[in-house]
Design a protein that fits this description.
alpha+beta; Immunoglobulin-like; elongated
Length: about 450
């Protein structure tokens, strides 16, 4: 819902989409439009959806291309995503891709009857048949402006969902071994039906008829290195790409160049935020090298869309939004003001501006106690350590370092918490070798909101 509402918002503002990305969760976990746009100077959008099969990506592509004319279409595929859905669970995933588009269109009707069993079609085409909607007061109006609550561990932006999660340690994957299998055995993957092959060709032809470039990609995932199956699939997609004269990029073959390891994944099949940033940078540079797309860097609307960096936040926003403190922690350290830089749903940095000049040799003697107190409704959002101690606050104590920006001194600490409202925060200094009491005074600030 968030993805389609954000897409419709762009359309309503007459903003063109230059790069359109389609696929399954592999797509929406891998390709971050923020990162891509910052390098290509274009506007991109990610239309990936959970377990979305190619036959349904075809529907989404056709529906969105009614309103946009992207210069480049990126289609993410892997073996399962090309297979037609089978079974209740797989059918259930496909339905969500239909719900958020216009109730009746020839494209939707033909696609629904092509993909789903006859008995499943009414639920998709007629909201009254959805079991969850069978309540006494029917309301068929979509909430076009409502922004649905986010996963606490996720960053959402134009269809991309980045998870600040890290999978358990895995042994390094051998890019060279996979490449060897691809070159050694040129056998093509033979597990696709004629209808599934036609879905690939249909997607290609529709994009070409629109006048857009097409790039087929395979997101990195651990199953690609298991046995010879992916090698055969890679050769099959290479053959298709050569036949129809389109580009093909398998990220599993540039694993080393990207610098991927298990810390970049949230699970074996999906990248986390860190891995998505690496892959998106690689994709953006690939686009710059292989395609000529118009730059939007001189368009005010595009510039205003770009995310703030910590440095630009301090230069432009901090002076307007920071809370005045003007209190001394001790006779050496005097705090002028404080604010938070919101980097995502759970990532934020506290920025402490100093009023007096403090030498590194002085600040390095201390540990800064930084405690964020919470309301009862946020008890479950505390860190595991805080919950184990039955606290109603998180302690983010750290050895502070001075950072100088535009002639002023700051202390900055990154926090990982979904909490954005603190009835109280407390700051104090103590000996860096261990707590033996506060050196100076506590500073308490009430009713702090992270914007």
């Amino acid at each position: 819902m968030n993805t389609i509402n954000e897409y419709n918002s762009l359309i309503n503002e007459d903003k063109e989409i230059d790069v359109a990305i389609y696929g399954s969760s592999h797509a929406y976990c891998s390709y971050n439009p923020r990162v891509i746009d910052s390098i290509t100077k274009t506007r991109s959008f990610n239309f990936g959806n959970d377990a979305q099969r190619l036959v349904v990506s075809n529907f989404v592509m056709k529906e969105t291309l009614k309103k946009i004319s992207p210069k480049l279409v990126v289609l993410d595929v892997y073996i399962t995503s090309i297979k037609n859905p089978e079974g209740v669970k797989a059918f259930g995933f496909q339905k969500s891709s239909y719900y958020y588009f216009k109730i009746f269109s020839s494209n939707k009707i033909s696609s629904v009857f092509e993909v789903l069993p006859l008995e499943e079609a009414p639920e998709v085409l007629f909201p009254v048949f959805r079991k969850k909607d069978l309540v006494s007061n029917f309301n068929f109006n979509r909430k076009n402006n409502y922004f649905y609550s986010k996963n606490a561990n996720a960053k959402e932006y134009r269809g991309f969902v980045g998870f600040d999660l890290e999978m358990k340690p895995m042994k390094p994957q051998s890019q060279e071994k996979l490449l060897s299998l691809i070159n050694k055995n040129k056998t093509l993957y033979d597990g696709f039906t004629q209808q599934e092959e036609e879905s690939i060709i249909s997607f290609i032809e529709k994009v070409k008829n629109k006048g857009s470039n097409l790039l087929i990609v395979v997101a990195p995932y651990y199953a690609a290195f298991a046995g010879e199956k992916h090698a055969h699939f890679h050769n099959y997609m290479s053959m298709i790409s050569e036949k129809y004269k389109i580009d093909f990029l398998d990220f599993n073959l540039v694993w080393n160049e990207i610098g991927l390891d298990y810390k970049d994944f949230k699970d074996k099949g999906h990248l986390g935020s860190k891995g998505a940033k690496k892959v998106s940078k690689y994709l953006a540079n690939y686009i710059n090298t292989n395609y000529v797309l118009p730059s939007r860097e001189n368009e005010l609307a595009w510039v205003e869309e770009q995310p703030k960096t910590l440095k630009s936040f301090i230069a432009e926003t901090f002076p307007k939004t920071s809370l005045e403190v003007n209190k001394k922690l001790n006779d050496k350290v005097y705090i002028e003001s404080i604010d938070f830089f919101n980097e995502g749903s759970i990532s934020k940095s506290v920025i402490i501006k100093l009023k007096n000049r403090v030498a590194d040799s002085i600040i390095s003697k201390y540990r800064l106690g930084f405690h964020t107190y919470i309301n009862d409704k946020n008890l479950n959002d505390l860190t595991s350590y805080s919950k184990s101690k039955n606290r109603k606050y998180d302690a983010w104590d750290f050895i502070p370092e001075i950072i100088e920006i535009d002639g002023s001194q700051y202390i900055i600490k990154r926090l990982t918490t979904p909490i954005s409202k603190f009835p109280k925060i407390k700051l104090f200094l103590y000996d860096k070798r261990g707590y033996k009491g506060v050196i100076g005074k506590n500073i308490e600030i009430e009713n702090v909101i992270v914007r």
